[in-house]
Design goal:
Helix content: 40-55%
Largest sheet: 7 strands, antiparallel
Mean pLDDT: 84
Number of domains: 6
CATH architecture of the largest domain: 2-Layer Sandwich
Shape: extended
Structural class: alpha+beta
Distance between the termini: 123 Å
CATH superfamily of the largest domain: Histidine kinase-like ATPase, C-terminal domain
CATH class of the largest domain: Alpha Beta
Strand content: 25-35%
Low-confidence stretches: 700-706
Oligomer: single chain
Radius of gyration: 55 Å
């Protein structure tokens, strides 16, 4: 190439650089700009004179300066950088998205002496990509199925919602005919849709049925639009498919509900009339027809006042129709009391009614519904209720206890004369006052105010009594001890609508109780004195009998008399000891001498004490005792007394040659001693009283051997003093008995 050709080539290249839409600049290996074209000036806002001689870093944001170091390092190694997308900054500090391509510049010897850089502004390109990505994200995240197809109906794309809706993956749908989603009987719809699309028409909200992969039918609403090229040519179809299965289900439910309302309004026990905003009848149910005498056909379109004629029961003057008030005020309206409806045939009946506005979806009043009923029977019921109320009040006035009734707020509504006398308030002055103000009670010992049981009866809905002995303070300050209870008053629905308080002056009862306690105390004192007096002569009698046994007569008759004396003296001695124990228990003077003992020893000693009587009666005794110790903290002699008493009773109240079992066991941290027999048993109703003092069951024992009925009361007292329990069991008279006492085990 000669010099002229080289110059021309150089000029040609310079023209290409200068006319390029991309920024082109050169720099040395230190990053100093050597040249730039007009596009660089336009993109970055600098003139060539402002850029040449300055570091290219002036075009690089502060957070991307490291990129220049890496680029220069690669250029020095002779590498090229292609289509590197990054951000650069203009003179006015505007960030510009660019794509860089950088090549090393070599001298004639091939040495790298600089770099040529092409910077393409891709701001609009990135924006377009972002918009496209945004649109794609919208399509992908849409709840509606979206797919595209060509003009032959071949699916080109589909979103995730379409996959979910039809059960196909995108790879299964793309490339296949959209007809795979159309039931056989609806294939003609696709022909019609494609024909309209080719004509450039849109199809909006076409409700139809499509078919999922598993064959089930799906109710859908389809919107179809043509896809055009820039020149307007239709090249494809975009289809939006919304699942309206739930919408269809709701529509069916609404239709069924409307039918239900129609049937319900026709069958309810009240009359129902509906009118339009002009007050003309649009609907009557069967009961309305019966009460007004108008048929629905005859009444429809007529003024409501013609069909629903009402007058005041007393004055006979026309009553303003409630629908007029509803239309004026927009609120629910009710008739006043004592309104009579005049039937078309002239007959009358008292009614109660209410009217309410009918609103459309926008809240506008589009009519009025009137609901009314014949209250003839209610009037009769009210009269009967008033009579019953009068009867109750008369009854409450007459009973011997004081009665106060309150409403649901605890305000006094009724008092009978006894309540007036005890509280010092009259019904006239007490009515409407808080019951706590009328019924003032304090603890008899503490003198602190006691909460009225009325409050709890109202809040908890339960029957409540006073928690402690209480004194009622009357309005004049006088006092009397009382016993009371409060109970909720409920309506038919079970809701608490008030409370009734019943109380009585127990002054006389207290006096009687004190007299009975004094009598009991004197009886106990007498028995204790009697026992002490009897105890003295018994000792020498028993001693004399013992001497007679040692040196007694040989005459059998005298021996028999001696044995009788001994047996009766022993029996009397036991009765005396029981009486003394009863006295000690009553006086609180029976004290235990407790220590750790083995109950097995107690059972053996009790058997030794009673064995003579058991053998004398010919009873078979079975003993069940564990091998291991059964330790309790107890007074051994007293427990021998308990077990012996139970064995003695078993022997005494079991006919000769009977069976007696005594068992010692442990269960649930307790030691258990059970004495069973097949004797006379305990009659029904006596089991709960068998441990009371002086209680006896009918037996065939001679009166002298039947005892006083105090032995079991002593057993119960001794067991409870040990922290234990005792119980009796029996299937009834003649079916034997079982007595069981339990004591806490002593920990090892």
């Amino acid at each position: 190439m000669d010099e002229t050709q080289a110059v021309n080539a150089s000029r040609y290249l310079a023209a290409i650089v200068e006319s390029s839409d991309d920024a082109i600049l050169s720099k040395d290996l230190n990053g100093i700009i050597q040249s730039c074209n007009a596009a660089a000036e336009r993109i970055f806002g600098y003139t060539a004179s402002e850029l040449i001689g300055r570091p290219v870093r002036v075009l690089i944001p502060a957070d991307r300066q490291a990129e220049e170091d890496e680029i220069l390092a690669r250029i020095r190694q002779g590498e090229r950088v292609r289509h590197f997308e990054t951000v650069r900054v203009s003179k006015d500090h505007r960030l510009i998205d660019v794509s860089l391509s950088i090549s090393p510049v070599r001298d004639a010897a091939g040495r790298v002496i600089g770099a040529a850089k092409i910077a393409r502004d891709i701001t609009e390109q990135k924006r377009a990509r972002a918009v496209q990505a945004h649109l794609a994200a919208i399509v992908e995240s849409s709840e509606d199925g979206i797919l595209s197809k060509d003009l032959d109906g071949i699916v080109q794309s589909c979103n995730a919602a379409a996959e979910r809706l039809f059960g196909y993956s995108a790879s299964e749908l793309v490339g296949r005919s959209v007809r795979v989603l159309i039931p056989p009987e609806r294939q003609s719809e696709e022909d019609a849709i494609l024909a309209r699309i080719r004509r450039g028409e849109r199809i909006e909200h076409f409700e139809t049925v499509r078919m999922a992969k598993d064959g089930h039918r799906v109710d859908v609403s389809v919107s179809v639009s043509p896809v055009r090229q820039a020149d307007g040519t239709i090249v494809a179809v975009a289809k939006s498919i919304r699942d309206i299965t739930e919408q269809k289900r709701l529509a069916r439910e609404i239709a069924a509900q409307q039918e239900w309302f129609r049937v319900t309004l026709g069958s309810i026990g009240d009359g129902v009339i509906a009118s339009d905003p002009d007050g003309r009848v649009t609907y009557l149910n069967g009961h309305a027809e019966a009460l007004t005498g108008w048929t629905a056909d005859a009444a429809t379109g007529r003024a409501l006042a013609d069909v629903f004629r009402i007058v005041n029961e007393t004055t006979r003057l026309p009553v303003p129709n409630p629908t007029d008030l509803v239309l004026r005020s927009g609120r629910v309206a009710e008739l006043a009391n004592h309104t009579v409806l005049i039937n078309r045939d002239g007959t009358e009946c008292p009614i109660a009614d209410s009217a309410a506005p009918i609103h459309d979806a926008a809240g506008r009043i589009i009519g009025v519904v009137l609901v009314f009923r014949d209250v003839t029977e209610e009037r009769k019921a009210e009269a009967a209720l008033a009579e019953q109320r009068e009867w109750f009040e008369t009854t409450l006035q007459s009973i011997g206890d004081a009665v106060i009734a309150t409403d649901a707020q605890g305000l006094t509504a009724f008092m009978n004369p006894i309540a007036e006398r005890l509280t010092g308030w009259t019904l006239a002055t007490a009515r409407g006052r808080d019951c706590a103000e009328i019924f003032r009670v304090v603890g008899e010992e503490s003198r602190r105010p006691v909460a009225s049981p009325v409050a709890r009866a109202l809040t908890d809905g339960v029957v409540v009594g006073l928690a402690e002995d209480a004194v009622l303070i009357a309005a004049d300050g006088t006092e009397c001890p009382i016993d009371d209870s409060a109970a909720p008053i409920r309506n038919r629905d079970g809701h608490v609508i008030g409370a009734v308080l019943v109380f009585r002056d127990i002054t006389e009862r207290r006096r009687g109780e004190a007299e009975r306690r004094d009598s009991e105390r004197r009886k106990d004192e007498f028995l204790a004195v009697l026992a002490h007096e009897l105890r003295g002569p018994l000792a020498p009698i028993l001693t004399a009998v013992a001497l007679l046994k040692a040196k007694g007569p040989a005459d059998p008759a005298l021996q028999k008399l001696r044995d009788t004396i001994h047996r009766q003296a022993v029996q009397l001695s036991k009765l005396v000891e029981d009486l003394l124990d009863v006295g000690r228990v009553t006086a609180g003077k029976l004290h235990l001498q407790s220590s750790r003992i083995d109950l097995r020893d107690v059972v053996q000693q009790a058997i030794e004490v009673t064995n003579a009587m058991i053998e004398q009666r010919g009873h078979a005794l079975t003993v069940q005792i564990p091998d291991m110790p059964v330790d309790v903290d107890a007074d051994a002699p007293r427990l021998v007394q308990v077990a012996g008493n139970l064995l003695h009773n078993a022997a005494k109240f079991t006919p000769n040659n009977g069976r007696i079992d005594i068992e010692l066991r442990t269960e649930l941290g307790m030691a258990v001693v059970a004495v069973r027999d097949n004797g006379v048993g305990i009659p029904p109703g006596m089991v709960d009283r068998i441990f009371d003092r002086f209680v006896q069951i009918g037996t065939s024992e001679p009166r002298g051997e039947a005892g006083l009925g105090i032995g079991l009361s002593v057993v119960k007292a001794l067991v409870e003093l040990h922290g234990g329990t005792v119980e009796a069991r029996s299937a009834g008279a003649g079916k034997g008995s079982e007595f069981i006492f339990r004591l806490p085990l002593q920990a090892n």
